[in-house]
Design a protein that fits this description.
This protein is an alpha/beta fold and 297 residues long. The chain has two domains: 215 residues, P-loop containing nucleotide triphosphate hydrolases (Rossmann fold, 3-Layer(aba) Sandwich), CATH 3.40.50.300; 73 residues, Alpha-Beta Plaits (2-Layer Sandwich), CATH 3.30.70.1560. The chain has ten helices and 14 strands. 33% of the residues lie in helices and 29% in strands. The two termini are 32 Å apart.
């Protein structure tokens, strides 16, 4: 396993930021780490990167214990924190050269990561003159300098415009072909676009850990909202799980079927002599699943 988290808890005084969290991540997975603000995501990432110590439990990264083998963990992990710490008065190559000295890696690696992260067009600029998107690229380049097996990225696309977001998303996806990536984000489309698996925490507690496709498939019950031309008392159809009246003429019908049931609803209305004024498919997406998992008290 690239990352093993075993019964991790973290207390700040009497406040419990993390409560008995456990999971493991295999080499080569791209895992989205989700949760509302204050759920404990950054706290756990800081524990995995040795910036914080857990109150209870154990974490192993690349085979190294984060408590007893912190230096080995730091050498084998690339970390991009939520607030990307950069020296704005340094040129890109200067900044990367400084970090290359820290990691004791060859200076030739600097040009490799500049090319890998798409920094070449801006490579001769000072970091302070870069856009937010290119500053994030510099942070990723720094995280990749020592060619780590694991990348831990805390909100890597915060504050980016749509074009920058797509560029960084593609970059992370390409990097993830050869490395384990553990990233936190509030952007559900980002998770759907690049992640293999989703881990969700809420109020410091793990509430979901599933393969993304499996998670979405579990919630593929078809929800069809239909407005009829008249008031209807009951609806009974094949494969129907339930039917609830939204108001006098509008019903929400839930089906358990892989088949698109809108045509069946139309046939049903025609058979009963009803006219359909409008009909909408309201299947759950990851954002709706996230809200369900994190709104529970």
């Amino acid at each position: 396993m690239s990352i093993e988290v075993q019964n991790i808890s973290k207390f700040y005084g009497e406040q419990k930021a993390l409560n008995n969290i456990s999971f493991s991540i295999k080499k080569g997975e791209i895992v989205g780490f989700l949760g509302p603000n204050g759920a404990g995501k950054s706290t756990l990432m800081k524990i995995l990167t040795t910036y914080l110590s857990a109150t209870e439990g154990k974490a192993i990264v690349n085979g190294f214990d984060v408590t007893n083998q912190a230096k080995n963990v730091q050498k084998s992990v690339g970390y991009l924190p939520e607030h990307n710490p950069l020296y704005l008065d340094l040129y890109i190559r200067e900044y990367l050269a400084f970090n290359a000295d820290v990691y004791k890696v060859s200076k030739s690696r600097i040009e490799e990561v500049i090319q890998l992260t798409g920094l070449t067009p801006e490579a001769n600029k000072k970091i302070g003159a870069l856009s937010k998107g290119y500053r994030q690229r510099v942070g990723l380049a720094c995280a990749l300098l020592h060619d780590p097996e694991v990348l831990i990225l805390d909100e890597p696309t915060t504050g980016l415009d749509p074009n920058q977001l797509l560029e960084i998303r593609e970059l992370i996806k390409n990097i993830g072909k050869n490395k384990t990536v553990f990233l936190s984000t509030h952007i559900m489309q980002e998770v759907e676009a690049i992640c293999d698996r989703v881990i969700i925490i809420n109020k410091g507690v793990l509430v979901e850990d599933k393969n993304l496709k499996s998670l979405v498939k579990e919630h593929t019950q078809q929800i069809i909202e239909v407005e009829f031309d008249k008031i209807i008392d009951t609806i009974v159809m094949a494969n129907m799980i339930s039917a609830a009246k939204v108001n006098d003429n509008v019903w929400e019908i839930i089906f358990n079927s892989d088949e698109d049931m809108r045509s069946k609803v139309f046939d049903y209305a025609q058979e009963k002599g009803y006219k359909i004024l409008q009909m909408n498919l309201k299947n759950k997406n990851l954002e709706q699943i996230f809200r369900e998992k994190t709104s529970k008290k």
